[in-house]
Amino acid sequence: MNTEKIKARRLTAEEVSELSPRDEVLVSAELDNLPLDCFAPAFLTKHGKFFEGGSVSARMVFGKEVHVLPDNADERGIWVADKTGEEIEVLRSAGVLLNLALFVPDGDKDSLEALYASAREAFGAGLVQRWNEEIVAVPDIKIDLFEEPIRGRKGTGTQNRDRRALDIYPTRVQFFEPSDGWKFVIEPHQEIIDDTPTI
Question: Which of 23, 90, 157, 173 lies 20 to 30 Å (CA to CA) from residue 2?
């Protein structure tokens, strides 16, 4: 575990109510009933003054959302870094968890094992792990992905279209999100042919 000792102080519920989602706080690092005797950096999910009933929710930098009663003596509370406070231990990130979607042409079990083995060799056998593996056959076609406004203006014959991504495989679309107020339009890929006359 990658931890460091820092000086911090515990906040009261009144002090928490003055915090915004931009202020870094420290909450108990307990993960799924795994009793870790340290704290983790977190941010409130909304401005402190909008919480009711004394319960405050915060999202750790590791993605887990926790609910804390700041004034409850039986809980570890919410803390902030303070040079005049007491010493606590804080869990720091030791790496990055990557969710990868890999396209392996003519992929079979041997090629996937070779890919996995080379990743373990590059980063270390104890570091690279396969947590979830889903093998999906990808059709050998490409598509054009456009964005269009969800609500078009009446009386206009032309489409207000924005080319978001060209030349992509259909399975990659699920990893994109349209802009606010826009929707995706998917069409079969058409090569752009330049018919400009040449001399």
Answer: 23
8 A C-beta contact, residue 97 and residue 7? no
Please measure the distance between the N-terminal and C-terminal CA atoms of the chain and give it in whole angstroms.
68
Burial of 129-146, coded b for 16+ CB within 10 Å and e otherwise, reads eeeeeeeeeeeeeebbbb
At 16-59, the pLDDT tens digits run 999 999 999 999 988 777 778 899 999 999 998 888 877 899 99
Summarised one tens digit per residue, pLDDT across range 65-114 is 999 999 888 889 999 999 999 999 998 876 677 777 677 777 777 888 88
Closest CA to 100 of 122, 115, 121, 111: 115
- Cβ neighbors of 25 (< 8 A, separation 6 or more) are 11, 16, 19, 41, 42, 43, 44, 58, 78, 79, 80
Classify residue 31 as exposed, middle or buried by CB count within 10 Å of its CB (0-12, 13-18, 19+). middle
- Rounded to whole angstroms, the Cα distance separating 11 from 29 reads 17
Q: Looking at this protein, which amino acid is placed at residue 16? A: V
